[in-house]
Amino acid sequence: MEFTGERFIPADNNDELSVEHLHRYHSILPLIKDKVLLDIACGEGYGSALISGSAKSVIGVDISAECIVHAKQKYFAKHSNIRFAEG
After folding, report:
1. Residues 6-23: b if buried by 16+ CB within 10 A, e if exposed
2. Of 4, 72, 78, 81, which sits 20 to 30 A from 59 (CA to CA)?
3. Residue 59 CB neighbour total at 10 angstroms
């Protein structure tokens, strides 16, 4: 998936942009333990994958078919409690 500036892609961005995005997910980790979460506008799936470590399960949803395909390929096999859907 190519970085266009529209969506955050962790491996392709600078530290400042990473902090701007990742802190949002890290800040909720204590609140989501054993909960079922819906991650709307999940983009390439990095946040859904991150929170899946604390949550009971996560459903990542994005309007972009390309993002969902990418998220499934990159994160689905590594996280048994995560699903991705276009919507």
Report:
1. ebbbbeeeeeeeeeebee
2. 4
3. 18
DSSP per residue, the chain: ----SSS--GGGS-HHHHHHHHHHHHTTGGG-TT-EEEEET-TTSHHHHHHTTTSSEEEEEES-HHHHHHHHHHHGGG-TTEEEEE-
CB neighbourhood size of 34 (10 A): 8
Q: Please state the pTM of the whole predicted model.
A: 0.80
Contacts of 9 (CB under 8 A, 6+ apart): 1, 3, 43, 44, 46
Query: Please, what are the averages of pLDDT over each run of 10 residues along the chain (87 residues)?
Result: 64 66 84 96 91 96 94 89 96
